[in-house]
């Protein structure tokens, strides 16, 4: 194989090697030549080297400055091993190893390249490397079907599980090594491209290191996956991309190593080039998903992405929904990157109210009204070095004020819909809430509060004007029976306590004009029947309903299940039974049911109370304003 060393004045020597069977080598300044010499003294097509039976000869192609040997221009020069000639002003040294060339010529005529072209040591090493690479590829490929999720968790009892969990913690140590090594390979290949092939990088060693460390990173990453701490679509995508990256990287290394050792490259060089491109794509995808797992999706913060800002009403600004506008943004900043849609560490999602109530694989994240049993609160107070501490060490921690706000919300019942004005806001909590806002936001909230108050007063005045006729009509027939709950709102309360024998089903119609404002209705000991209950089922705003000592039965009780805001129901002295009370099972807001002197059995009352507890625990509904936050629904049957 001839070797030609070209030395352009002022530049580093450039070495060119050619296969022994190449018959003609063109030389000139044009890049289309086999040897391109960037020198003004060299013509575009200066000369060419021809292989003859007894060696090589260089022929001048009528160039301007010719070819020279010992300073003398010649048209033809016989090349011998080690000879130095000048092409223009450029020094060219020609080297050839006749023994190697002869061996290559012999191998060219032999179909058995492996046995003749390679030395015994090279063949043995190449065979061993390929065998080892194939074993690694096979092992990585079948790895996802081995083991069970959870076998390497912290609670593993087997020696195997404990070792897998321990080794899985080293995944972050290894994962950056193949990325760094392969990035070096990319840099060297880019230098080759930018120098038009003059720089010939040796990437084999870097690829070997990248392949070896990639295997460790993939295996230890899978061990960490088996701990069960991480799951979700994002984890599955990262696992998939990591395995693909490792396999393609090993194939790329094998192609490069074989191309270095074998005299005939064949398809090895194209395979290597395609492998570099494919490995780059797999590395970018795996790295992006891995970054999302740790830090969230960086593309969401890209300056070219326009974020849709929610337009809030004056009411929402002045009196925000606590979960939606206060709690959820805190969780989104500090928790959801590890407990969201794509990644659920320990099986826990925190990106919705329902997910918080559902909890994780083993612990309850949110127990409304109970700070100690709500792990989302308890884990905030663990020492920073504790494995259960959330957020873990190294992550952005919640501020003391944010912790106070979360505790306030959970202790107050952890409702998804409650507004700030419906909860007790102490000076400490008010100060904590202000730390979440900029001075501009505080000023905006104050302005919105004033505007909202004016809107509320105007609405109250308008609605009261509309209710004036209803009040006059009802109070004319039943004086003093229909009143406002307070002077600050439009809620109405009706009491027939003074008209028990007079008020009948037909009189319910007179109240329909105030159906949107009537929140409390006392019909105790009146003449209403099951037929009247059908009419009452349309009074959607009723919160307190007293039907004691009326003639209603199970049939009428079934109609009351439609009152979705009902909190207090008094059925004392009625004829309802266990069968009828089933209509109220699982009611979302019912807090107190009075069942003295009815046909309800203790078992029926217990069943109702249990169903109300479970229903209201699952939706995190807020407590009655007259109850403590920890209180639960009560079914009072008496004796």
How would you summarize this macromolecular structure in one to three sentences?
The protein has helices spanning 98-108, 113-116, 120-142, 159-168, 171-194, 204-225, 233-261, 268-295, 314-318, 322-334, 353-358, 375-378, 400-411, 427-434, 439-477, 530-536, 554-559, 578-581, 602-619; strands at residues 3-7, 14-17, 24-28, 35-36, 47-52, 55-60, 67-69, 72-74, 76-79, 83-87, 90-95, 482-484, 492-495, 518-522, 544-546, 568-570, 592-594, 634-636. By secondary structure, the protein is of the alpha/beta class. A hairpin with a 2-residue loop joins strand 5 (47-52) and strand 6 (55-60).
Quickly list its features.
about 650 residues; elongated; 6-stranded antiparallel β-sheet; about 45% helix; alpha/beta
User: Biggest sheet, strands in spatial order?
Assistant: 12-13-14-15-16-17-18
Query: What is the 3D form?
Result: elongated
Largest beta-sheet characterization: 7 strands, mixed
How many beta strands in the DSSP annotation? 18
Structure description:
The protein is α/β, with parallel strands linked by helices and 639 residues long. About 5% of the residues have low confidence. The radius of gyration is 42 Å and the shape is elongated. It has a 7-stranded mixed beta sheet. Strands 2-1-11-10-7-8 form a 6-stranded antiparallel beta sheet, with no helix packed on it. It is built from 19 helices and 18 strands.
């Amino acid at each position: 194989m001839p070797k030609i060393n070209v030395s352009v004045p002022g530049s580093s020597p450039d070495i060119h090697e050619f296969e022994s069977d190449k018959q003609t080598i063109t030389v000139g300044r044009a890049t289309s030549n086999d040897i391109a010499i960037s020198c003004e003294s060299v013509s575009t097509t200066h000369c060419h080297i021809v292989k003859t039976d007894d060696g090589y000869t260089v022929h001048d192609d009528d160039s301007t400055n010719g070819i020279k040997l010992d300073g003398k221009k010649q048209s033809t020069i016989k090349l011998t091993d080690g000879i130095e000639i000048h092409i223009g002003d450029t020094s060219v040294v020609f080297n050839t190893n006749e023994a190697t060339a002869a061996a290559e010529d012999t191998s060219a005529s032999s179909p058995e390249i492996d046995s003749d072209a390679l030395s015994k040591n090279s063949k043995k090493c190449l065979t061993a490397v390929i065998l080892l690479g194939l074993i690694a590829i096979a092992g990585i490929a079948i790895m996802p079907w081995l083991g069970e999720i959870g076998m390497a968790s912290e609670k593993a009892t087997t020696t195997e599980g404990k070792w897998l969990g321990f080794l899985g913690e080293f995944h972050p140590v290894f994962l950056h090594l193949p990325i760094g090594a392969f990035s070096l390979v990319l840099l060297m290949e880019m230098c080759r491209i930018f120098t038009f092939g003059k720089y010939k990088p040796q990437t084999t060693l870097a690829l070997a290191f990248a392949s070896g460390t990639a295997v460790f990173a993939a295996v230890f990453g899978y061990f960490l996956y088996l701990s069960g701490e991480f799951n979700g679509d994002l984890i599955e995508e990262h696992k998939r991309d990591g395995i693909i990256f490792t396999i393609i990287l090993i194939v790329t290394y094998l192609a490069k190593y074989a191309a270095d050792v074998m005299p005939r490259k064949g398809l090895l060089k194209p395979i290597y080039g395609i492998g570099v491109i494919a490995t780059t794509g797999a590395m970018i995808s795996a790295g992006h998903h891995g970054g999302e797992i740790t830090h969230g999706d960086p593309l969401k913060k890209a300056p070219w992405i326009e974020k849709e800002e929610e337009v809030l009403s004056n009411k929402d600004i002045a009196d925000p929904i606590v979960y939606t506008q206060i709690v959820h943004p805190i969780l989104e900043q500090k928790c959801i990157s590890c407990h969201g849609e794509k990644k659920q560490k320990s099986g826990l999602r925190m990106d919705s109210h329902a997910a918080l109530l559902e909890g994780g694989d083993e612990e309850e994240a949110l127990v409304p009204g109970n700070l100690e049993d709500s792990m989302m609160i308890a884990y905030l107070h663990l020492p920073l070095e504790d494995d259960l501490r959330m957020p873990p060490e190294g992550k952005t921690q919640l501020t003391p004020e944010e912790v106070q706000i979360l505790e306030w919300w959970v202790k107050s019942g952890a409702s998804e819909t409650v507004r700030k004005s419906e909860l007790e806001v102490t000076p400490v909590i008010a100060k904590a809430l202000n730390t979440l806002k900029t001075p501009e936001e505080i000023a905006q909230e104050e302005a919105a509060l004033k505007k909202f108050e004016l809107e509320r007063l105007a609405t109250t005045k308008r609605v009261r004007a509309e209710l004036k006729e209803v009040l006059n009509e009802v109070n004319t027939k039943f004086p003093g029976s229909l009143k406002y709950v307070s002077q600050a709102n439009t809620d109405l309360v009706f009491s027939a306590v003074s008209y028990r024998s007079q008020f009948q089903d037909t009189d319910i119609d007179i109240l329909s004009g105030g159906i949107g404002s009537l929140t409390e209705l006392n019909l105790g000991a009146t003449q209403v029947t099951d037929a009247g209950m059908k009419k009452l089922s349309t009074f959607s705003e009723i919160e307190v309903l007293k039907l004691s000592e009326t003639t209603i039965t199970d049939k009428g009780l079934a109609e009351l299940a439609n009152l979705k805001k009902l909190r207090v129901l008094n059925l004392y002295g009625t004829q309802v039974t266990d069968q009828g009370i089933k209509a109220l099972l699982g009611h979302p807001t019912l807090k107190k049911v009075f069942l003295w002197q009815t046909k309800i059995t203790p078992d029926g009352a217990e069943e109702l109370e249990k169903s109300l507890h479970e229903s209201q625990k699952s939706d995190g509904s807020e407590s009655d304003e007259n109850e403590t936050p920890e209180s639960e629904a009560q079914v009072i049957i008496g004796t």
